[in-house]
């Protein structure tokens, strides 16, 4: 079964057609890079795919569930979808571990269990030693790892990453991509927005958007990039 499927999706903002009939499916274990010029609809595609934004027309399904029919979309998002945003959105008054625990606690997982899970996933992303620190005490790369840990916790099957390598140096960016790739190889589906051909080289498939439409889709998976 595909993890996420978009069928003939449009998204209009007033006169602006951010997406014009996009169809896309991402399977378990597949990393799809989304590329295209600024304003081509990449972030809109990601938001619609993850149920953060609703399409004007067309259908979005996550693990077979039509998002238009899901009663508790927030709960589905918390259990199935992990987001890594450009601006990270870490909560400044919470430590790294508490930030990672939060989505699990919102799902009713006991604090002690949520903490154990958070510490395990922070260790997995190489941020175990900063678990007790607040976001402002972390470097950009550490913050990004914490944000990724928060997206991974709870074994969510769909990961959406919008320029997760942002302003990071190449070595740190490669490590972040490696983390996404590892989760993907373990069965998650990943949609990655990137401007960098270097990072698209980690993908199984690259989808190019222009003016809200997919203009090209190509298999890549350059083994030499890894
Ligand atoms: N809330 C909104 N209201 C009005 N227009 C919007 C809104 N969100 C996006 N748009 C417009 O939709 C189009 C697609 O925007 P989107 O952010 O998806 O592009 P993008 O490819 O992610 O761009 P970038 O690479 O610069 O982040 C743009 O023309 C943008 O101005």
Automatic annotation (TrEMBL):
In terms of SMART domains, this protein maps to: AAA
Ranges of residues in domain ABC transporter: 4-222
Keyword ATP-binding assigned to the entry: answer is yes
Xref: SUPFAM superfamilies:
P-loop containing nucleoside triphosphate hydrolases (SSF52540)
Annotated signal sequence range: none
Q: Which Pfam families match?
A: ABC_tran
Keyword line: ATP-binding, Nucleotide-binding, Transport
Gene Ontology molecular function, alphabetical: ATP binding
Q: Does the keyword DNA-binding apply?
A: no
Top-rank taxon, per record: Bacteria
Official protein name in the record: ABC transport system ATP-binding protein
Lineage at the top is:
Bacteria, Bacillati, Actinomycetota, Actinomycetes, Streptosporangiales
